[in-house]
């Protein structure tokens, strides 16, 4: 919003742009809760990872499943209220991030798919708190802030739960599985940050920017360097869990994270 091409926008246009981004975030969150996180929760709740997780921890996944269902409900409700207030249409096109995550799991061998879903849940749930905090900082509306805070309080618990499960699972994986999932993890982190160029083009166009101005604004935020910085800013908690579990002690796995731009070769974060 600080880009020179956006400085000429009036208050109403700026508010509309903020609202469009907030609706996009909320709609993405609604889908992520029930299409992504709750698939991981189902895998755990059905005890499909019984070789790695005690049953009592599997039972807790049903509580998380309920939380996420309610988050999806109140997030969708808030999105609808904002759309109505600003006269925005419902955007029900495909969500690139969800499609990328689902394709990533679908590409894994069938016998590894349950664990791949767990890894997706682990990454998403250890990153989401930071994403919510970032949006709270960019929002002045007290009702929206209250809703996000209620969500955040649950997500702190969920992040601890998934971190605890990962600590159970990682040392019990055989060397081949550690090699496989250790390389999958940075790809999952990247998939969670899939950039929706079409959406950003559209909202900037709605705000009255011509194609050249849109490209100038998006070049600042959509390039490889800013995208990598965005990923690193969000996944600190995830990387800390991986470090605690010794994932980066493996040279090849450490290199996979370095190549993804998530850690430096000579320094951790
Ligand atoms: Fe949630
Ligand atoms: Fe959650």
CATH superfamily grouping? Ribonucleotide Reductase, subunit A
Number of domains: 1
Q: What's the pLDDT, averaged over the residues?
A: 93
Query: Ends: how far apart?
Result: 27 Å
Q: Do you know the CATH architecture?
A: Orthogonal Bundle
Instruction: Give me the secondary-structure category.
Output: mainly alpha
Report the CATH topology name. Answer: Ribonucleotide Reductase, subunit A
Q: In percent, how helical is the residue content?
A: over 70%
Distinct ligands, ions and cofactors found in the model: fe (ii) ion
How many strands, which pairing sense, and closed or not: the largest β-sheet?
A: none
- Runs in which pLDDT lies below 50 for 5 or more consecutive residues are none
Question: What amount of the residues lies in strands?
Answer: under 5%
Count of beta strands: 0
Oligomer: single chain
The succession of helices and strands, N to C, reads HHHHHHHHHHH
| Name of the top-level CATH class | Mainly Alpha
What's the short story on this structure?
This is p-aminobenzoate N-oxygenase AurF. It contains eleven helices and no strands. The protein is an all-alpha fold.
Polypeptide structure, described:
The protein is mostly helical and 269 residues long. It has one domain: Orthogonal Bundle (Ribonucleotide Reductase, subunit A). The protein is 74% helix and 0% strand. It has helices at 11-45, 55-86, 96-106, 113-137, 142-169, 175-192, 197-206, 211-222, 224-234, 236-244, 251-259. α1 (11-45) packs antiparallel against α2 (55-86) and α2 runs antiparallel to α5. The protein is globular, with a radius of gyration of 19 Å. The mean pLDDT is 93. It binds fe (ii) ion (2 copies). Residues 37, 68, 125, 155, 158 line the site of one fe (ii) ion. This is p-aminobenzoate N-oxygenase AurF. Pfam families: AurF.
């Amino acid at each position: 919003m600080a880009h020179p091409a956006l400085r000429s926008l009036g208050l109403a246009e700026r508010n509309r742009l903020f609202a469009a981004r907030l609706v996009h975030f909320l709609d993405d969150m609604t889908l992520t809760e029930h299409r992504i996180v709750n698939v991981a929760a189902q895998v755990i709740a059905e005890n499909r990872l019984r070789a790695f997780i005690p049953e009592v921890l599997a039972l807790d996944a049903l509580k998380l499943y309920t939380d996420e269902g309610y988050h999806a409900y109140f997030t969708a409700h808030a999105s609808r209220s904002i759309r109505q207030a600003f006269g925005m249409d419902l955007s029900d096109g495909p969500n690139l991030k969800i499609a990328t995550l689902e394709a990533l799991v679908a590409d894994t061998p069938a016998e590894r798919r349950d664990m791949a879903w767990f890894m997706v849940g682990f990454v998403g749930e250890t990153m989401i708190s930071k994403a919510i905090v970032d949006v709270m900082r960019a929002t002045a509306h007290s009702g929206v802030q209250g809703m996000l805070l209620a969500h955040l309080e649950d997500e702190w618990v969920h992040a601890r739960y998934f971190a605890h499960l990962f600590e159970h699972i990682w040392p019990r994986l055989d060397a081949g599985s550690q090699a496989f999932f250790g390389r999958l993890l940075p790809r999952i982190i990247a998939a969670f940050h899939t950039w929706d160029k079409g959406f950003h083009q559209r909202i900037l166009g709605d705000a009255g920017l011509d194609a050249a101005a849109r490209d100038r604004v998006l070049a600042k935020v959509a390039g490889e360097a800013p995208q990598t910085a965005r990923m690193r800013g969000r996944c600190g908690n995830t990387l800390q869990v991986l470090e605690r579990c010794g994932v980066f002690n493996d040279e090849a796995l450490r290199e996979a994270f370095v190549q993804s731009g998530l850690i430096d070769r000579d320094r951790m974060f």
